[in-house]
Task: inverse folding
């Protein structure tokens, strides 16, 4: 459990920071599909003894590259493509796990994560994802903000939009892979989208959104781990339920105050 708390804390840093950009850039479906798309690769890696991290990262980065290329060529890789990826990945993963490799109980661990099966490699990958998320936010935060709020002006100002977008998509893919062992392929976005969406209700500036998002991710992850221990359930569903409860509590509290504050506040770009 101590290892799991360290793991989730590192994921919370990466998930909170990148989650803010995911929400601002409307990449929630992409983040969800990235985690789920790795499921077949995880099944094969688990059955063959190959590195699950390498397999998942290869699939996630390939999907991220496809999204970026499709957006650049004008192809629709939005909701429709995400639905196709989710259905295909889950179907292929389940077929491989049940009929080809007979993975058994490993399916639950791959889909929903584990709190007691984490090791040193998982911590190093999570630490790498957290460190890169911090560095990228410091160096590219203004560029991501400009590209998110006014992509036309960002392009005319000379910003290299393609490398900027590729960096963001790649970091989301890496961080999603880092979260897989603890949260699972099916609920990996619970540490990315949900805290940032909750923080979006409370923040009026981008720096505030980043700080609140990381804080909520830490709270959600730690609480979810102890709920999973108490109820003897996988950590992924517990963390997701805690996040949903936090979001509902904040949304209802704002709605109860006044109709005006029930809507997300406008972010200041300065």
Result:
């Amino acid at each position: 459990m101590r290892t799991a708390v360290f793991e989730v804390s590192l994921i919370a840093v990466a998930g909170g920071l990148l989650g803010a950009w995911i929400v601002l850039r409307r990449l929630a479906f992409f983040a969800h599909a990235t985690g789920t798309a790795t499921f077949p690769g995880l099944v094969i890696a688990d059955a063959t003894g190959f590195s699950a991290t390498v397999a998942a990262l290869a699939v996630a980065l390939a999907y991220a590259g496809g999204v970026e290329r499709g957006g650049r060529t004008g192809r629709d890789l939005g909701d429709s493509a995400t639905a196709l990826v989710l259905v295909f990945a889950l179907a292929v993963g389940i077929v491989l796990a049940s009929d080809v490799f007979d993975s058994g109980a490993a399916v639950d661990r791959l889909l929903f994560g584990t709190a007691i099966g984490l090791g040193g490699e998982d911590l190093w990958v999570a630490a790498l994802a957290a460190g890169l998320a911090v560095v990228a936010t410091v160096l590219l935060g203004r560029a991501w903000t400009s590209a998110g709020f006014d992509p036309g002006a960002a392009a005319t100002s000379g910003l290299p939009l393609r490398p900027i977008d590729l960096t963001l998509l790649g970091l989301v893919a890496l961080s999603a892979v880092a979260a897989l062992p603890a949260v699972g392929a099916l609920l990996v976005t619970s540490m990315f989208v949900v805290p940032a969406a909750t923080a979006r209700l409370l923040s009026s500036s981008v720096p505030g959104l980043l700080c609140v998002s990381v804080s909520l991710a830490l709270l959600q992850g730690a609480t979810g781990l102890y709920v999973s221990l108490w109820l003897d359930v996988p950590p992924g569903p517990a963390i997701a339920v805690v996040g949903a409860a936090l979001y509902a509590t904040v949304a209802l509290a704002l709605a109860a105050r006044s109709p005006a504050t029930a809507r997300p506040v406008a972010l200041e770009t300065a």
